[in-house]
Amino acid sequence: MSDPPQHDQASHVLRSVFGYDRFRPPQDEVVAHLIAGGDSLVLMPTGGGKSLCFQIPSLVRFGTGIVVSPLIALMQDQVAALRQAGVRAAFLNSSQRPDEARRVEAQFRAGELDLLYLAPERLLLERTLDLLDGSPLALFAIDEAHCVSQWGHDFRPEYLQLAVLGQRYPGVPRIALTATADERTRVEIIDKLDLTVARLFISSFDRPNIRYRIHEGQGNVRETLLRFIREEHPGEAGIVYCLSRKKTEDVAEWLTAKGVPALPYHAGLTAELRAGHQTRFINEEGIVMVATIAFGMGIDKPNVRFVAHLSLPKSVEAYYQETGRAGRDGLPADAWMSYGLQDVIMLRQMLAESGAEVAYKRVERHKLDAMLGLCELTGCRRQALLAYFGETLPEPCGNCDTCLAPPATWDASVAAQKALSCVHRTGQRFGVMYLIDVLLGKQDERIQRFGHDRLTTFGIGTELDAKGWRGVYRQLIARGLLNVDVDGHGGLQLTDACRPVLRGEEALWLRRESAVPAGKRSRVAKSPTDKVSGGKAAAGNFASAEDQQLWAALRGLRMELARAQNVPPYVVFHDATLAEMVRRRPQSLDELGALSGIGERKLAAFGEQFLQVILNPVA
Length: 619
Ligand code: ADP
Ligand code: ZN
What we know:
Elements: H1 4-16, H2 27-35, E1 40-43, H3 50-60, E2 64-68, H4 72-84, E3 89-92, H5 98-109, E4 115-118, H6 120-123, H7 126-133, E5 137-142, H8 164-168, E6 174-178, H9 183-192, E7 199-202, E8 210-216, H10 221-232, E9 237-241, H11 245-257, E10 262-265, H12 271-283, E11 288-291, E12 304-309, H13 316-323, E13 333-339, H14 341-353, H15 358-376, H16 381-388, H17 401-404, E14 409-411, H18 413-425, H19 432-440, H20 445-449, H21 466-478, E15 482-484, E16 492-494, H22 499-502, E17 509-511, H23 518-524, H24 527-532, H25 545-565, H26 569-572, H27 575-584, H28 589-593, H29 600-615
Parallel strand pairs: 1-6, 1-7, 2-4, 2-5, 3-4, 5-6, 8-13, 9-11, 9-12, 10-11, 12-13
Antiparallel strand pairs: 14-17, 15-16
Bound molecules: adenosine-5'-diphosphate (ADP) and zinc ion.
Residues 20, 23-24, 27, 44, 46-52, 302, 328-329, 574 line the site of adenosine-5'-diphosphate.
């Protein structure tokens, strides 16, 4: 029930300050609700545009908008970007000198701030609350609201105390925001933040610009990764996730030696080194971060063009969160994963050996199984992903590997019977290598010692080679027809689920292991991306040499301006905005100002310089 003038005001701010033509649903509704003074909880995927939901009402409503944000780096980034757009924003956090903090406080008291960002522990200090008591407040925004969840991995105890805001400032609307989609977290946020009367806004969690690709790693995974980066993302920023610290260092070093600038990131590095690598990743173009899962939270970089997994994530939730760091700017991006039998066995073993409670292990086991199911899928990956989060995508997406190149399947019923009965006859205690040797009828001292060369399954599997059998075993494990033993030797055991297949009562169709390297496959299928991303080609992927040159020149200018102000390049302009400049070639400041992402303030500050580069590309 927002009155029209205020709604007009919101649209005006969107255009003049941020340079965008229209709200992305449900931004408009959220903004209107907040401006009208209502509380809300907003669930939107990464890159969905949560920030505008509270930034614009802060500008429209009287008083200062107070933003609670858990990470200093995020806060600094958002404030820097807002200032570029001419918004009076500031933060108070522990990275500041006392005199800087005092200046910000004075600005706040004088009513000179539209937005003030605070870490939760800072906000909860009596001193800060006193400060807030004395001035008009437009709203409270609680960003990354899932930090209240004790079950999540981002739990921040101070978030639990934020319920005081509703009690202490009853007239000030509150908005909580998160990209965590699951029901339990949602309920916890509402409960812990005392938001029972808040309106709930849920947008689709689909990330249509991300292309999901999962393949079984064959041969040298590093080489496959290098080929993928060289062929599809040369000079672009990306994140590579590995399971172990040592591996991140090895891979980073190796990529660098091959001419791809890469840095390691894991919890074992000194805080200084980690911060340094993170800053380089954010401030430079084209750095590849090779990281354990310790890296990512609080990375706002919009132009991460790919996220690669060199091993299997532990759950679909983790996979979705990690891949979600790609393509926040909405331009085409890849979620690329290579995994193999070894990952499956290792993760199952890690889980079995962990000292956790049985109930917890069971939940984790189910999560891992769901992840494996996603890997071995023969249908659309996006449909399965969204279904996992309770959302229905009616049609296959056309932008995942299985849609672009449907995997061939084969009737593996007989092969599966052989594989399973070999497990049974050898006593359910041997690993995959041994079982395959038996199936292939290998003359081996161990096999003879155990008398397994006299089994009926000895040598009955010559129709497949060792690689083929590994594929069969991996898929049988992934589908839960086989278990990996708990004592850590990797022995396989039958499960109840395998009986119908073993008895020949149920047919089993498996993915045919692809002979085509993943990189090649997707090259052929480049055009469907254009369809799903609304005709946008990847940023920086221009057909003509002239366009390519202009793109490079614009990026150069952007880097220069960013360096001079000590901010990341994307804070000056996003890739999408530079790409628009190349495509549309504006000939005047007016035309330039009409492009998406150029507000009045940025036009005044940088317009002339960018226009000169466009008008005189070779100068
Ligand atoms: P989130 O916080 O949900 O991850 P952001 O608020 O950082 O997402 O927004 C993601 C990107 O989308 C940013 O680059 C932002 O400038 C852009 N964006 C947000 N809203 C709009 C809009 N209405 N039109 C165009 N771009 C938008
Ligand atoms: Zn699909």
